[in-house]
Each structure stands twice: as structure tokens, then as C-alpha cells.
Amino acid sequence: MMGRVAIGLLLVLLAGCASSPTVEEPKFNGIDQATHARVQAWKELIEAGSSQPDFEKLLSANDFINEIRFIDDIIHWRKDDYWATPLQTLVTNAGDCEDIALAKYFTLSAMGMDERKLRLTYVKALAINKPHMVVSYFETPNGIPLVLDNLNPSILPAPQRTDLIPVYSFNGVGLWTTKRGQPNQYIGGPERMSLWQGLLKHMDVEAANESAMICLYQYYDLPESKAKTFCPNN
Length: 234
What we know:
The chain is α+β, with helices and mostly antiparallel strands. The protein has a single domain, classed as C8orf32 fold, CATH 3.10.620.30. The protein contains nine helices and nine strands. The chain has helices spanning 2-18, 33-49, 54-65, 73-76, 86-92, 97-110, 194-208, 210-217, 224-228, and strands at 69-70, 94-95, 118-125, 130-137, 146-148, 156-157, 164-170, 175-177, 185-188. The chain starts with a helix and ends in a 6-residue tail after the last helix.
């Protein structure tokens, strides 16, 4: 008899567990916990990096951003070519090589690194036989750059990256043709690059209401009108 009672109680307890309501995670202005934590970790990384020497900055930014999932633009943004802001890449936790390189570049810039030491470099990646983007760091203007990459997580001098054929590089002050074993040739300012200019304008919009934009980016795959219904600050 006692055995039957025990079995009955056990079944009641199991049924209760099965029917327990799902506890919704708390949100911060419509921002879910995982997104909030990821963005906060990024900001803490930037704050910590502001007092670090250059190479420590490079290591921490490279390691952190390389954790982001790689996904092609056509799948992620449904566009052939799209340059996401670092915040979009962080919130969606995904991006292609350009998005990952851009996120590293602006993370390092936010840490206080001299922009003249950094360039975004287009290369041909022989291992995948595709165009690819990396970050190049120049300790001195005419020095051998270090390469920050998501294909190879190790930060290496450019001559050791024989799998990459440089084509051109740019930053916020200039655009250069880049060929292996030859001096870079300045060819003009970055204003001729429409994707770069569009990216900077988008980042200005973000800065005006960062919390609202983070919330909207969580629903990047929905129409904006629908996404706004989930975000209290819009």
C-alpha cells in the first residue's frame, strides 16, 4: 500500500514539474540578458584596454571579437555586401570577415589606440580562395604590420602570413594600394568609399540612442515596424 502511495506522489510531482510555467528572463529596456551581458563584456574590455600597452590591446580585442560566429552577408543580412557596425555584430553575435575586422578596428580605436597605426586591409585568402578582410597594425608608419585575422587567431607579422595576398588598405584618414614586399602607395582619402561612409553615419545614429538600437538589432530579421513593438524606447 505504501509503495502505491509513494508512486502516486511521485507522479503528481512529475506532473507538476512538467506543467510549471516558463520563467521569462528579465529584460533591460527590451534587451535580453544574453545580449546585455555580451555588450557589457565588450564595454568592459574597452575600458580595461584603455590602460594597456598596444600589444595587450591587440590580443584582447582579437580574442574577444574572434568569438563571434562567422556568417555570410547574404544569409545574415540578406544582402550581397553589407558592412555592419560593431554594435550590430555584437548584438547579433554574427558577421562575415568584414564585420569581424571592422569590430576589431573600432574596438581598438575605442581603447584609445592611434588610428594611424591601424588599417583595414583587403587581401586574397589563398586557403579559401576568396577576398578577405583583416586588421593591420603598424607600430611605426613604415614598419612591418601585424595581422589580426579570424581565419588564423594568432597575431603574426604580415610576412609570415603567406596565405594572404594584400590588395589595398584604408582607415579613417586614407586609402592605400598594398602589395607584398612593396611600400604602400597612398591613393586618396576614405571619402571615396561609400560603404565606409555609410557605416560611419550609421554609427552616429547608434550613438544618439544606443539602448534603443541594441533592442532593435535583436530583431534584425523582422521588419522595423514589427521590431519596434518589442522595444519600449521606440
